[in-house]
Specification:
Structural class: alpha+beta
Distance between the termini: 27 Å
Number of domains: 1
Largest sheet: 6 strands, mixed
Oligomer: single chain
Number of helices: 2
Number of strands: 6
Length: 114
Amino acid sequence: MAQVERDSAPDGDMELYDLRVQVDRIDGRSVCGMRVGDYFELTDSAHLRLPEGRHFCVYALASVLPFLAAKQRDLATGDWLARDSLFACPDPEERLIMRVERTCRRRMNSADLT
């Protein structure tokens, strides 16, 4: 289970997970120039962070983006999204597979978010 980070808002009224989306494998050819191990992090609810000097394909990002808000929250027992963590880029030549992992649980104030 992900570690809990409570220092940022100890009086917060909600908790969200920070996420790491990492290229797990590429079963085709890397059309966009990404490599296995490339990643981005989603922290503090909506902050997207990339390692300096690296990129992440916008089409791969678009394919996983609709699932990230749900992966940031606690999910019901038996929810398929609680069990599954692999997502595919839509480029058929590339067949790039990304893994979404929770990195830590962060307490936040919902009034600070939109």
